[in-house]
């Protein structure tokens, strides 16, 4: 019974590589069922990424899947998007040009 519980725990996370805005990368087991809108703040906090730009404005981030070749929508989870194990997820600062 312990093995079944452990399998369910492992299945609830997807091993991926997070590619940082600086170009570095980190391996992580990321929850399969958490929406991207909740996942990005967790990643930026745990990776100690800046939350404000040089101009003092808040910095927002986006998450792109190399395997899928697209940006992940905020309402998607990694599971619903079909992210495969070992995917490279690019965490990119989403820069909006000033007016």
List keywords for this structure.
99 residues; alpha+beta; Ubiquitin-like (UB roll); disordered N terminus
At a glance:
By secondary structure, this protein is α+β, with helices and mostly antiparallel strands. It has helices at residues 2-11, 36-46, 78-81; strands at residues 13-19, 25-31, 60-65, 70-71, 88-94. The protein has a five-stranded mixed β-sheet with strand order 2-1-5-3-4.
Description:
With 99 residues, this protein is an alpha+beta fold. The chain has a single domain (2-94), classed as Phosphatidylinositol 3-kinase Catalytic Subunit, Chain A, domain 1 (Ubiquitin-like (UB roll), Roll). The protein has helices at 2-11, 36-46, 78-81; strands at residues 13-19, 25-31, 60-65, 70-71, 88-94. Strands 2-1-5-3-4 form a 5-stranded mixed sheet.
CATH architecture: Roll
How would you spell out the order of helices and strands?
A: HEEHEEHE
What class do helices, strands and sheet pairing give? Answer: alpha+beta
Q: How many structurally independent domains?
A: 1
Distance between the termini: 59 Å
Overall radius of gyration:
15 Å
Uncertain segments:
1-10
Total of helices = 3
CATH topology: Ubiquitin-like (UB roll)
Strand content: 25-35%
Biggest sheet, spatial arrangement of strands: 2-1-5-3-4
Count the E strands: 5
At the fourth level of CATH, the homologous superfamily is: Phosphatidylinositol 3-kinase Catalytic Subunit, Chain A, domain 1
Helix content: 25-40%
CATH class: Alpha Beta
Gross morphology is: globular
- Compute the average pLDDT: 87
């Amino acid at each position: 019974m312990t093995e079944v519980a452990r399998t369910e725990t492992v299945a609830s996370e997807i091993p991926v590589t997070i590619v940082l805005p600086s170009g570095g990368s980190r391996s992580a087991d990321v929850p399969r069922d958490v929406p991207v809108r909740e996942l990005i703040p967790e990643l930026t906090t745990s990776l100690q990424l800046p939350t404000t730009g040089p101009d003092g404005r808040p910095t927002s981030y986006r998450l792109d899947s190399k395997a899928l070749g697209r940006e992940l929508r905020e309402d998607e989870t990694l599971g619903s998007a079909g992210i495969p194990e070992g995917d490279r997820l690019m965490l990119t600062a989403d820069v909006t040009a000033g007016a």
